[in-house]
Amino acid sequence: MKPTLNPRKLPILNFAKSESSLDGAPPLADFERLQDFQQADVLGVQVQFQAHGETRAAAGGGSAPWLRLSADTRLTLVCQRCLAPVEQEVAFAREFRFVGSEAQAELEDEESEEDVLALSSEFDLLELVEDELLMALPASPKHDVCPQAVKLRVADPDFQDPEDKPNPFAALVGLKLPKG
Ligand SMILES: [Zn+2]
């Protein structure tokens, strides 16, 4: 019987070598940092993810372990136009190459176009999913069409705050005083 893979403790090298796949739909409640952005009930919201391991020929010969990872969820964020809640899809699909150590991963991640991570026999796949979803959050979420007219009066060019009424004496400033 195949052992059940724990996405919080994934043996990456074996996962890649055996070309394994793992998917799931854990609740948003399992993602502490991500759920902070949810402006509606956290319950009932899930994060779908799909992970595939594989090995590819390495630049210096031999083979390197790779992970293809994608995830998506729907979060309720704050519309930056009307400030009402707006549901937005947050998703990503990326590929990661794994190397032997954290130091090597940092070095290679900077130098290469690829996303490089350090191998671990207990890799936290859901933490990576969360990191990537946080980066995929829209910087300025907006409704395609806001549900109601924007009522913020400051946004109305004709609206004048009583405080901003022209000072009756301001007109005087424009008068030229006769030179005496
Ligand atoms: Zn809106």
**How many H/I helical runs?**
5
Number of strands: 5
Low-confidence spans = none
Strand order, largest beta sheet? 1-2-3-4-5
Rg, Cα atoms, Å:
27 Å
How much of the residues is beta strand, in percent? 25-35%
Helix coverage percent: 10-25%
Helix and strand pattern: HEHEEEHEHH
Bound molecules: zinc ion
Helix/strand-derived category reads alpha+beta
Shape: elongated
Distance between the termini: 107 Å
Biggest sheet features: 5 strands, mixed
Give the mean pLDDT. Answer: 88
Q: What does this protein structure show overall?
A:
The protein has 180 residues and is α+β, with helices and mostly antiparallel strands. The chain is 20% helix and 27% strand. The protein is built from 5 helices and 5 strands; from the N terminus they run αβαβββαβαα. The mean pLDDT is 88. Residues 79, 81-82, 84, 86, 142-143, 146 line the site of zinc ion. The site of zinc ion has 8 residues, from loops.
What does the secondary structure layout of this molecule look like, with pairings?
Elements: H1 12-17, E1 21-24, H2 32-35, E2 48-57, E3 63-78, E4 85-99, H3 102-111, E5 115-118, H4 125-136, H5 170-173
Parallel strand pairs: 4-5
Antiparallel strand pairs: 1-2, 2-3, 3-4
This protein binds zinc ion (ZN).
List keywords for this structure.
180 residues, alpha+beta, five-stranded mixed sheet, 5 strands, binds zinc ion
Sum this structure up briefly:
With 180 residues, this protein is α+β, with helices and mostly antiparallel strands. It is 20% helix and 27% strand.
